[in-house]
Design goal:
globular; 408 residues; mainly alpha
Length: 408
């Protein structure tokens, strides 16, 4: 049985791909021959995974696709219902992909809805569309996206729209969705394949930066080992004790700065008198931040506390999204000005200091790419916690006493 099932899945995917190719060819020939097809639309009749560049679709096709999208949303009782319809169409039409649906149905439905909405809304601007697709591709790095899977996903969406809207889903709208979904799917494949090198660079250089403290401690132990007898052991014990005290002091200072940032967002010069040599990434970051004039930007300490979790989970989209969600909730309590690009400058300076031998242009690009994507994810969440807090408060206040007790 274990040898037959993969073969059946492969045959199913190949058949689906062949059928879709035939359908696309039919659509192209049905388009008015005297007008012809725009070069971008013609190229995107198939999934393009060899390059990821800006694409400009004809204005009339984009307008028809956006109108069809609004018609689809309007025909549903709510945006949540529209998302549920998309989820059901994908889940039912793609048995081979059901193993990828690991998140709760309502959450996945909302993500499909928001993702498609952002793509359709930015379709008129090539640069904005490329940035949006790159952000989405960054969030799907842990998924194995292939051309047959893109075809199944695309067909399920288009079939759903045809069933829901009928004649209102015009030929131009179909061409628009076909081109956009092929563009997005090809971009996902390209990003996962080509940006895998960047992920390896990030992982290896982060290990190097994180091991700096261990190296310094190891050097101290070797020097202490040169002592003789009990005196040498005593010196080594004192060195270890001093290292532990210094590490605890740094942790306490970082925690105090972070607590102050959460509480008031006001400037603090608590760490300004410390002149010890930084050996860890957090120490180096705080040192460079002070040197570069960001000692009063206490919000950086908030991000710094979760930065390790974000870096180590760069290829785990769900975990990375969770880290950004939690971070946005904490940053929402900060009452000062937050400029995320400043964090990138201090972060890069710190990494250059901790990885001096291996650092090159590829490292610069990889770490810049990581933070640019994290920054976009955080900016998409900023401002939402305040609104969600009010909605949550209204919901809790509307609960009965029994329901409140059950919720607790």
């Amino acid at each position: 049985m274990t040898e037959v099932e993969p073969q059946e899945d492969t045959e199913y995917l190949e058949d689906a791909e062949e059928e879709q190719e035939a359908a696309i060819e039919g659509e192209v020939y049905e388009y008015p021959e005297e007008n012809g097809l725009d070069s971008a639309v013609r190229q995107l009749q198939e999934v393009q995974d060899k390059e990821f560049v800006e694409v400009r679709l004809p204005a009339d096709i984009v307008a028809e696709a956006q109108q069809a999208w609004q018609t689809f949303i309007g025909s549903s009782s709510s945006r949540e219902a529209a998302g549920e319809a998309i989820y059901a169409a994908l889940f039912d039409s793609a048995p081979t992909l059901q193993s990828l649906f690991k998140t709760a149905r309502s959450v996945m439905a909302l993500r499909f809805m928001n993702g498609l909405n952002s793509i359709i809304s930015s379709a008129a601007s090539p640069s904005v569309l490329k940035t949006q697709v790159e952000t989405l591709g960054f969030q799907h790095l842990d998924l194995e996206v292939t051309i047959p899977r893109v075809v199944i996903f695309r067909d399920a969406i288009i079939d759903l729209f045809q069933m829901e809207m009928g004649a209102r889903f015009t030929t131009k709208a179909q061409l628009g969705f076909l081109a956009l979904l092929n563009y997005v799917g090809g971009a996902y494949i390209y990003i996962r394949r080509e940006y895998a090198v960047r992920i390896k660079i990030i992982a290896s250089s982060w290990r190097t930066a994180s091991n700096k403290a261990a190296e310094f401690i190891g050097q101290g132990e070797e020097e202490a080992a040169e002592g003789e007898g009990e005196g040498g052991e005593g010196e080594r014990g004192e060195a270890n004790k001093a290292d532990a005290e210094r590490e605890e002091e740094t942790r306490r200072d970082t925690k105090d700065s972070k607590d102050e940032a959460r509480a008031s967002g006001e400037a603090s010069n608590k760490n300004s008198n410390h002149t010890k040599v930084p050996t860890t990434f957090n120490e180096m970051f705080l040192f460079n931040g002070a040197v570069m004039g960001f000692a009063n930007s206490l919000w950086m300490s908030i991000i710094l506390e979760q930065f390790d979790a974000m870096v180590t989970n760069v290829a785990n989209s769900n975990r990375l999204q969770e880290e950004c969600d939690v971070l946005s909730l904490v940053l929402a309590k900060y009452r000062g000005t937050i400029n995320l690009s400043e964090f990138k400058a201090v972060m890069l300076a710190s990494m250059r200091s901790l990885v001096p031998k291996d650092w090159n242009g590829d490292h610069e690009v990889a770490w810049g790419w990581l933070w640019e994507n994290v920054e976009r994810m955080l900016k998409n969440l900023m401002g939402k916690p305040q609104v969600q807090e009010k909605a949550l408060e209204r919901f809790i206040m509307s609960l009965t006493e029994d329901a409140s007790n059950f919720l607790r």
